[in-house]
Structure formats: C-alpha cells, structure tokens
Amino acid sequence: MSLRxxxxxxxxxxxxxxxxxxxxTLRLINAAIKDxxxxxxxxxxxxxELSDADxxxxxxxxxxxxxxxxxxxxxxxxxxxxxxxxxxxxxIESFLPRQLDEAEMEQAIATVIAKTxxxxxxxxxxxxxxxxxxxxxxxxxxxxxxxxxxxxx
Length: 153
Prior knowledge:
Number of domains: 2
Number of helices: 7
Radius of gyration: 18 Å
CATH class of the largest domain: Mainly Alpha
CATH architecture of the largest domain: Orthogonal Bundle
CATH topology of the largest domain: Hypothetical Protein Yqey, Chain: A, domain1
Distance between the termini: 43 Å
Strand content: under 5%
C-alpha cells in the first residue's frame, strides 16, 4: 500500500470514528500534498503523481513547521495552541518512517564517512548528500550535520 493510499484509508477511518483532531490533520496533509502536486505540474515533471519519497519530504516539512509553531506558541504562553500543534505532529509522524536514535545515527554516519572516504571538513557536503539519499525521513539532518562536522573536524 502506497503512502497516499494509507493516508486516504486513515482519512476514511477518522471520519467514521468522528476523530476531529485526526481528521483535521489528515485533511491538512491532503492539502499539502495537493499543493506539492500543483507545484510539480508547474515544474513539468515527467510523472504526474508524487512518489512516496516526495510525500515523505512533504510530511517531514509539515512536522518541522509544526515544531516551530509549537515552540513559538509556548514562548507566547499559548499552551492550548501548542498542544494542538503537538497533536498534529503525532498524527503526521505516524506516516513517516521510524526515526533513527542517536546510536543508529552515529553508526550510519560512520558507515557513510568510511564509504565516501571523507577525511576533512571539506567533505561534509558529500557525506550529507549520501545520508540524505539513504536516510530520507529517518533522521534529523540538523543534528546529523553537527555530528558529521564533529567527526571530520
């Protein structure tokens, strides 16, 4: 089952269960996907439908936006709005691949550094590109970048 089919299936389930929070979030996901498809049409891509990797990128971006919003709401003492954003994050993350923990990230970074032959800070771009292609949606690349830099420094 593709990611798009899974989202549609969950949308129907949320409607039947009258789960308003999940339903609203799934509708936001569908809207973001539709926006991305429209943008892709403008780029005149060969295939008309987005791949699961494209959908994962959309979902990852949505999680990042909501984390930023939740942080801003907490700083502004609007905990009710922050809780809404956190609930949306939980729903969106249920469609993303499992995130790697610190130890797994360290192992993945060590493997990629060894494979690419990176020896200095100048090779960070090559290492990060390989990590992004292999572990898209599975790791926080902000943390990974800092870890790679620390290893190569």
